[in-house]
# Entry
Amino acid sequence: MTIALDMSRRSFLGRSAAVAGGLTLGFHIPGLAGDKGAALAAETTPEVNAWVVIRPDETVVIRVARSEMGQGTLTGLAQLVAEELGCDWKNVTTEYPTPGQNVARKRVWQNFSTGGSRGIRESNDYVRRGGAAARMMLLQAAANEWKVPVGELSAKLGVITHAASGRSTTYGKVAAAAAQLPAPADVPLKDPKDWTIAGKPLPRLDTADKLNGKQVYGLDLKMPGMLNAAIKDAPVFGATIKSFDATKIEGMKGVRKVVPVGNSAVAVVADTWWQAKTALDALPIVYDTTPNDKVSSETIAAMLKEGLTAKEAYEGNKAGDVTAALGSAAKKVEAVYSFPFQNHATMEPMNATALYTAERCDVWCPTQNGEAAFAALVEASGLPADKCDVHKINLGGGFGRRGMTDYVRQVVAIAKTMPGTPIKLIWSREEDMTHGRYHPITHAKLTGALDAEGNLTGLHMRISGQSILSSVNPQALQGGKDPATFQGLNPGGAEGAFSYAIPNLLIDHAMRNTHVPPGFWRGVNLNQNAIYVECFMDELALAAGKDPLAFRQKLLAKSPKNLAVLNAVAEKIGWNSPAPEGVHRGIAQIMGFGSYVAAAAEVSVDAKGTLKILRIVAATDPGHAVNPQQIAAQVEGSFAYGLSACLYGECTVKDGRIEQENFDTYQIMKADEMPKVEALLMPSGGFWGGVGEPTIAVAAPAVLNAIFKATGKRVRNLPLKNEDLRRA
Amino acid sequence: MARLTINGKTIDVDADGGTPLLWVIREQAGLTGTKYGCGVAQCGACTVHIDGAAMRSCSVTLDSITPEQKIVTIEGLSNDSSHPVQKAWLALDVPQCGYCQSGMIMAAAALLQQKPKPTDEDISTEITNICRCGTYNRVRAAIKQASIG
Ligand code: FES
Ligand code: FES
# Structure
């Protein structure tokens, strides 16, 4: 196994030099995660196992399969390996294996896909075992050398000691011998309460280069002889190009080639990207007309409205008899909510670089899913898989968008027309905004039954709108039903269980898909489901004459983890004592991505209707917490993302195309509006939940509930920018 | 040919006069620390200093710059990440993906140059860069830390 990886490393480096005439890329290029020498070390130092390489100078190279896009998984996963390895954290560096190597080694690194807050919650077990197995092999190597039973040895900070004889050695000295040993069969793991590296608020491993411009993102790649491409896909999804007149731009400065890509896009290849973009903007393109040309936000809204009362719907959660409960209710409460399309708007626009020759094809790109990018590359290049590879480059944000592979297919298609020339494809912000994979659009109608005492006896929640899976992964549909739609609403399960005990319940989905392609958008369906449920809970509490917190507490009596985070934020914000003059509070909770989260917000709204979000208290129970300071950063970031969506996020459709083309019309929340966030981390142990996404879901409902208190206005349609918040 | 002074070095570049300074810096000068985010002066990812003032280089054209004007990019802020803003950023582990951070740091450094002890209000008005990862609160804390040295 060792040999296989070393071979592919060597062949990659050798090949690069041969094919591209010597890439002057140093070690920024082959997809190493912020590491400067690991490729060389891996060439000369055999790995202890797939996860760990230890160089003679004691440097510990930890391999990370998931993509770092800001969420801190690189540091967190390395902490878990290092914890079990028992090395000195100061010596740790990281590298990304490639998807091609993963295939060649029968997926020894398992899943590369980085989304759904799964990095740590799904791979914690096998990466820790990787570290623990390496430690056992290193100890065994020392035991063999000293001819003593391995049980007499101990290891700490990368130093192995034999107390009986007073001998000691280091990981770096025995690593080569350890690499020759068989992997141990039985690999016990530490009790998390004994952790010394994991669980600690360590600084990230990848910060230094982000402070001085050295960090190389996909957009920054340079290769000898490289040309730059700009692309324009049909503005109406599903449209095709009728014609374009390349002669109009062929003489422009720097332009090398005008390339049709598929039947809907055209790219211009030039010496610089600015030249390519300038020429592309001047290229006359005529598109065919399609039925989609007539689709608008209004026609989509009408379609979704119809779904709210349609007969047919997929059931996601059902208990008792909701029709009977509504029929016999002392009081019925009904409300309709909606949530718009949103663009991920990563700060780094989509991009990828490809080098195609008759023999092979390599792609360098920021991707959340190296293996999906690899599959797209193999298919688009038409070459055998062992002649292709994807090299992950650091991501300037992902948020779900970079799990898709559209830009990989495009760059390979362009590079195929220019064999031997590296092509860097960069999307303009306008291209990125109008060719996203949008947060799905849905409406929801909620009907609740209260008895004479104000108890919630029944709830029907009808969702109408888009299914992500039917667009992104239709094989995952279950008899036509999209289970992902019910995130946070499921009867059970780690992805999001509906935790309120309501005797009569029906949550169903009338699937209404549009020509606007949906995608996984940070927080996914938990986002709008939490808004619908948590705002409606406040509406129900009001109708029942109860306090929103007390109303929830009663329904969550059998859900202690939900209750714990809810009570924690209530206590910290001072729920039961009066808020300062002019300040109003709202609260929300949900379970999703394996974690339990709650938020409380304080807002003020002045006479002009100007909203100020003053303070957020957020609580997270992710089971085990691997890096508390990074979790705090994720929680803060989640509020920036979730509140930006709540305040401003909306893509509208006119004549079949997305109207918002840049940040002037797709506004993003900035520092001036970012509230103070107090993050309470409450790891209760015994399970592994994600932290990159769940708190996004409680951001908007906590604020919307506080706005209701401040204004008496119940905002049911997002974003807030479209609402007049002056007190009615 | 146009002549520019970037990070103390004089360079001659061959690009159309209408080319945004951002792309001259990235593609002609080869300094890729300055980022493209929007191209329309909305996000601040492209922020550089021109004669000490923070400017959004995507919206400054090459022909509007004279050789005497001093352009400083993130690469030229300090030789060894020793600028007080960079030090505070490191201490508070500010960046997430990091893509917006060159622009954030350049904007923060210009603010501190102008107002060594900025108030919260100053930070809110002057730091109008977009960060999609949501590092705003650490950015604010790090500016304050840098201001007390
Ligand atoms: S790229 Fe210049 S402000 Fe966005
Ligand atoms: S750190 Fe990612 S956009 Fe700011």
Remarks:
- DSSP finds 18 helices and 26 strands in chain A.
- Chain A touches chain B through 58 residues (CB under 8 Å).
- Confidence is low (pLDDT under 50) at residues 1-41 of chain A.
